[in-house]
Amino acid sequence: MKRPIITLLTDFGLRDHFVGVMKGVILGICPEAAIVDITHDLAPHAVDEGAFVLGSACPYFPAGTVHVAVVDPGVGGSRRPLAARCDEHFFVGPDNGILSYAFAQAGEWQAVAITNPECRLPKLSATFHGRDVFAPAAAHLAAGVALEVLGEVVDDPVLIKLPTPRETPQGLQAHVLHVDRFGNLVTDLRQERLADWLGEASPADIVIEAGPVRLRGIMSSYEAAPPGSALALIGSAGRLEIAISRRSASHVLGLDRGDSIWLRKAG
């Protein structure tokens, strides 16, 4: 039998015991699980960033993978603990929008609130549902427990408004979704949407405004520009990125998540 896979994505960092304890809970319930850390270095409380990173990572895992995503500033409050099946993957996390990209990318989905006490730890804290609710629920799913056993059906999960490029008389407005470890600015403009907007025009004829810089054309790689120079390219996520070769575009250009990038056709 293949080992069940459980991924973990949190804003917990690695200084404290939180991530290790979640793994201990998972292995206590499903000792054969293979646990994969996607990241624990998300900005604290950044639900939108967690949603984007989760949506970017999950398509590369095998069918049946259970993804645990915990960015949970409302822990202990009224938000529901959620488990969902989106196509062939399972997701567990707070019902605060962190699963928005997973739902948006799915052809079909089902969701439940995690209310079955047999699928949680016996004693719940008000501050650590990653340990007490989400880790055990994920482990039960990985061990073969049906989604419906975890709790009551939810048909109205919280969904954050996902940024999308906007065509205006001034040009195409894209938005920075994510700043990666290298300071590259990953936008909501997918390669396919860019091609549709371009029509018969050449990518070399695009003028891009990113903060204080104006760029001409789409480059093929980070090395296509000299060190210290800004460039635009299609990154590994299939989205437009703004980068500065061997430097942080975010720091140099003063741009962050939510800021706008403008594209216009030359001439």
What descriptors fit this protein?
alpha+beta; Rossmann fold; 267 residues; eight-stranded antiparallel β-sheet; 31% strand; 15 strands; single chain; 2 domains; 21% helix; seven-stranded mixed β-sheet; Elongation Factor Tu (Ef-tu), domain 3
Describe the structure.
21% of the residues lie in helices and 31% in strands. It contains six helices and 15 strands. Helix 1 runs parallel beside helix 4 (129-142). The chain is elongated, with a radius of gyration of 20 Å. The mean pLDDT is 96.
What structural class results from the helix and strand content? Answer: alpha+beta
What's the number of domains? 2
Task: Kindly state the percentage of residues in helix.
Answer: 10-25%
Rg, alpha carbons = 20 Å
**What is the number of beta strands?**
15
CATH architecture designation of the largest domain: 3-Layer(aba) Sandwich
Continuous helix count: 6
Proportion in β-strands: 25-35%
> Helix and strand succession?
EHEHEEEHEHEEEEHEEEEHE
Termini gap: 60 Å
Please state the average pLDDT score: 96
The description of the largest β-sheet is: 8 strands, antiparallel
